[in-house]
Amino acid sequence: MTVLGSGEAADLVKAKSVLLESNGSRFQHGPEALRAALVDLHDFWLSSRCASLGISADSGVSLVAVGALGRRELCPWSDLDLVLLHDGHKEIDTVAEQLWYPMWDAGIGLDHSVRTPGQAVQIATTDLKAAFGLLELRHIAGDAELTDKVRAAVRQAWRAGIRSRFDEIADTTAERWRRNGDVAHRIEPDLKNGHGGLRDVQLVDALAAAQLVDRPSAEVSSGRTLLLDVRTELHRLSGRARDVLRAQDADEIASTMDVGDRFDLARALSGAARAVAFSAEVGLRQARNALPRRGLAALRRAPVRRPLDSGVVEHGGEVTLARDASASKDPALVLRVAATAARTGMPISAGTLHRLADTAPELRTPWPRAALGELLSLLGTGQGMVEVIESLDRTGLWGRLFPEWGAVRDLPPRDRSHVWTVDRHLVEVCAQAARLTTRVKRPDLLLLGALLHDIGKGRGGDHSEVGESLARQVGERLGLREADVVLLGAVVRHHLLLPHTATRRDLDDPATVTRVLETLGHSELLVELLDALAEADSLGTGPGVWSPWRRTLIQELSARCRSALTGAPFVEPGPPEESAAEMVAALEADGSPQVRFASDGDVASVTLALPDTRAALSATAGVLALHSLQVHTAESAVLHDAVVQEFAVTPRFGRLPDPALVRADLIKVLSGGMQLADALARKERDYAPSTPEVERTAPPRVLWFDDEATGAVVLELRATDRIGLLHHVTSALERSDVDLRWARVETLGSSVVDAFGVAGSPDTDTRRRVERELLAVAAGRGRDAAPPA
């Protein structure tokens, strides 16, 4: 390591650079060791610099670190947060300049201040962010007694003023969570500011410093270490201060940390973040209840215990156990507590959760009837159950009820349309299904099917087939009748049948309905349950998935199946959305394409109305790729002599583009004013890997499905996704003189399943020619494939 000179900040920068470079070698430090080395390096340089400036033990001046350096959590590109304390030193401004200026000149990120003890206490009582930092101050150099004096005064002021500041703490925390989302569920989480991130660990520490809650548990401390380790590697890899873990960085970080791939890392992060988030939520509730009461509030009677259900009472705004309640004697008690909390909107007290975790036995098989009733009551509360089940899961109670849950707990999604981990997705879908229970004859089976529909994931094999076996296993344990166990298994086995058929087959073909009914054993009840589950599943996946087109197609297929079973006439549903007709009217009046963006969370919806030309879909797909938009789903159909398209997209980098720019480029492409192929080739080169990669993708496939009644044909392409692929595929179809009636596109992780309704009945030679063209394009060898980088 470079030897540090007598206070030159350039020496610090060089030494840090050498440390980071050595960390990139095969003898690299682990992230924790790297942080420790960085802290020691900065402590040594700062103490040496202070000594050269005369800041000694009896000088009445001390240098303290707050923030990352104060907590010994210094990541490679964290700023230095320093406070120069003094007791009235006359030359303090000169000393401060001599300390700060060399660091500024060397380009070191620095947040600094100069305070007397009184000023430090005053700023801690008026500025919440400063208070959190000063609670963690650590002595670096100079007068240690002065540092201890300030530390004690700040903590005393913090404890004395916590009551008046608690609402501000709770409000700013809730706003931070809303703004940055959940670390556990975001595809690209904010490790520092997100719900369950490092700031939440600091929050619990601050509440503990106010003597309102206990220090973080071992599980939270372990979660904090993992979050810090990932953030450290993110800084090292990116070469700058970053808190958001991007998907493209996660694989390398996972490899460096020896935790598998990015999905293994995401699963570990999810578990850590959920433990931290749960601790912060419980800590805020406990702190509010533990706040010292003063004035008239101190004269009021303590909260009474209000009965809510058998063995369940409210106390201080939380759901807790009655004094004589016993989980060992009442098998349904755990679920009754949970159902009551979900129904009332009150949280279960931490003490009750721990008491139940310690005393509740596993339910015998089959479950007592009362326990099944309480489970269905819980599931039927909708969104109220989400946080309740989360609290049961974090304390081990949910896994005791459903041992099958372990394989999906914290399991990350494989594509960006899913915004939740698999276990949270199951709960969210169940919450959505609770809104649809009046639409079905068996609401109990709808709720259980929603809770279990993806339970087969994380085990290998087809998750629907694996899930059917597990669902039957659960149904038997719950005490369902044999016929209901079979029906529950069928709901899980076929939960994707209606969405996949509706979005990839010609619904006008009677054979489509026949195949669905034969698969489902001509069960009207099963069709009804799967229809409702398809809607709940889409709504519980993420924004933009339950698109108007998807809703219309699935409802039409379901209605056709019911009509075939009952003999009632089929009534075709109306247009998918009124706004589509409005855009078509605007297109007819204006004569140019109409573009509309709608953003809801991570996934945005892009709706377009264009003149009905053969090149409409390829032009739109190319322009979206040109603006770095990744397409997750796409639907295209003719409405009133116009082509209406709807895409679910996310920006690969940055934010969504300006719709006006997208519309302008689309007009240029359709009018011939832009050579889309050349522009897109340049964009594809930007995304091409810098070094050749080993071929790890499955070969593309083209499948043909004939619709006997209408004579139309469905062409399906299955391939590995890449930027611009949809444009290349549709261009290839246009060159082959294929007349598309409709298109439905879906991206599943790194794979695509693109279905196209082809007018007429292409002969064998035409099909072979189209198939060769598509396979070449999908493999990157076609006429429109990107030039090599």
From TrEMBL:
UniProt keyword terms in alphabetical order: Hydrolase, Magnesium, Multifunctional enzyme, Nucleotidyltransferase, Transferase
GO biological process: regulation of nitrogen utilization
An MF annotation (GO) of this entry: [protein-PII] uridylyltransferase activity
Entry EC number(s): 2.7.7.59, 3.1.4.-
Reported cofactor(s): Mg(2+)
Transmembrane segments: none
Reactions mediated catalytically: [protein-PII]-uridylyl-L-tyrosine + H2O = [protein-PII]-L-tyrosine + UMP + H(+); [protein-PII]-L-tyrosine + UTP = [protein-PII]-uridylyl-L-tyrosine + diphosphate
Family: Belongs to the GlnD family.
Name of the molecule in the record: Bifunctional uridylyltransferase/uridylyl-removing enzyme
Naturally occurring in which organism (per UniProt): Pseudonocardia endophytica
